[in-house]
Amino acid sequence: MVPYRYCGRVLEVMVPYWYCGRVLDVMVPFWYCGRVLKILVPFWYCGRVLRVLVPYWYCGRELEVLVPCWYYGRVLEVMVPCWYCWRVLEVMVPYWYSGRVLRVLVPYWYCGRGLEVLVPCWYYGRVLEVMVPYWYCGRELEVMVPYWYCGRVLEVLVPCWYYGRVLEVMVPY
Questions:
Q1: What gap in Å lies between CA 15 and CA 167, rounded to an integer?
Q2: Closest CA to 91 of 100, 103, 107
Q3: Please, what is the average pLDDT of the chain?
């Protein structure tokens, strides 16, 4: 539980060493306006779902989700609020992420400048999914896949009425 008017530079949420619950929810308060939001997941987190719920008017500079080196959970979900409109949303996946699915759920009216999904060098998961909302109208959508991507499927699901300026999917060398 974070206080009502917390506005420090960094908010860190540290999960314990042997947490193996089914769902881990990290809920940020209504008026959090710090510079960086960091969520540090432990070394052996093996819950079924890791969810990060960002508040309605999150207006920090960066949102960082730092997943540990050997995260083996079934699904990692990052849910961004309805009116997140800052410059960059970054989802950084660890070096040896081998979960089944990595999902990035972008809200209904996401209109930030860029959405970046940075996948590690040795991502071996089965499916990497980037689901863009119905009326995505940001300037750029970039999916950067690493040099040695060996996953089974890379899916980029763009909505029915995509109006963005550029849609770039960069596949490794």
A1: 36
A2: 103
A3: 52
- pLDDT band of residue 18 (cuts 50, 70, 90) is low
Give this prediction's pTM: 0.35
Average pLDDT of span 34-48? 52
| pLDDT recorded at residue 61 | 46
Structure token digits, residue 70: 């050997």
The first and second tokens of residue 95, run together, are: 């070096």
User: What span, in angstroms and rounded, lies between the C-alpha atoms of 143 and 156?
Assistant: 8
Give per-residue pLDDT as tens, 100-120: 455 565 554 555 545 556 555
**Contact (CB, 8 A) for 133 and 109:** yes
> Sheet holding 101-105: strands in order across?
23-27, 49-53, 75-79, 101-105, 127-131, 153-157
